[in-house]
Amino acid sequence: MRQEDEIQELKERLNSVEEQLAKKSNGFKTLKIGIIIVLVIFLLLVLIGVLQFVSAG
């Protein structure tokens, strides 16, 4: 009976760890998308600046 209790406790702990990992991966995914959006906007602004500089020259 004691082994069954220990196995059940380990299963519960494993489930909680898996849930925590799932939450962390979602947060990292959101951060990654945010960084990509900022880089795309920055590159677009640089491209616009270069085009204005070339067309004015």
Descriptive overview:
This protein has 57 residues and is mostly helical. The protein has one helix at 2-56. The N and C termini lie far apart (85 Å). The model has no long low-confidence stretch (mean pLDDT 90).
Provide the fold topology.
Layout: H1 2-56
Keywords: Membrane, Transmembrane, Transmembrane helix
Transmembrane segments: 33-54
For the structure shown, list the relevant keywords.
57 residues, mainly alpha, 0% strand
| Terminal residue distance | 85 Å
The share of residues in helices is: over 70%
SS field, number of helical segments: 1
Rg calculated over all Cα atoms = 25 Å
The 3D shape can be described as rod-shaped
Structural classification: mainly alpha
Order of helices and strands: H
Number of strands: 0
Structure in a nutshell:
The chain crosses the membrane at residues 33-54. The protein is an all-alpha fold.
